[in-house]
Amino acid sequence: MTGMKRYAAGAVVAVALITAPTSAYGAPSHRAASASAGPAAVTALAAHAPARPAARTAPTARIVAPGEHVAEPGGAEFWLTPEGKHWTTPDDPEPQFRSVVDGNIDLGTPGVSAQSEGTAAGHWTLSGLYWGGKGTASRVTVRTTAGTLHAKLLELAGDPGWGVWYVSTDVAPGQDFSLRHVVVRDTVGRVYSRLDLS
Length: 198
Hints:
It is a single chain. The strands form 2 sheets. Strands 1, 6, 7, 8, 9, 10, 11, 12 and 13 form a 9-stranded mixed β-sheet that branches. A 4-stranded antiparallel β-sheet has the order 2-3-4-5, with no helix packed on it. The protein is about 20% helix and about 40% strand. It has 3 helices and 13 strands; from the N terminus they run H-H-H-E-E-E-E-E-E-E-E-E-E-E-E-E. With about 200 residues, it is α+β, with helices and mostly antiparallel strands. Strand 4 and strand 5 (about 90-100) form a beta hairpin. The protein is globular and about 40 Å long. The chain has helices spanning about 1-25, 30-35, 40-50; strands at about 60-65, 70, 75-80, 85-90, 90-100, 110, 115-120, 125-130, 135-145, 145-155, 160-170, 180-185, 190-195.
């Protein structure tokens, strides 16, 4: 019986020796520090840990349902259907339309269209279609004689191969105002499509 007790005690010691190092190696370093040095060590480790940069996601187009109206702050409204772009402006409440299915646009070749409509008070609504680029459209820069503007994007769900950009601005009444170029970039900054007017 004494031999059996001795054997059992030896097995317990052997198990303790085998499992103890495994537990120590498996513990994260901050836990090991807290077990040996207390809460102060954990605080010190946290203070010296490198800060992780916040993940930044490039913007993409707002996805809208067919016929869903989107109001621009200056009073224009835009909506998309599978056939193309529809819009109204404060000075022209009659709906206007630009087709993407009438054969005037080759969706396989990158391109941008542009319409600009101004009021006597100097409020301008700029908009257009973009299509055919590689990647995901993310940002639109619109250069005008009055400065550079950053447009918003709208697309239908799925992968239509086209979308709408729009932006508005106010200029002094009578000031010369015209578009110079429109550049659409993808989520990694490459040119998706562009339009040069001068």
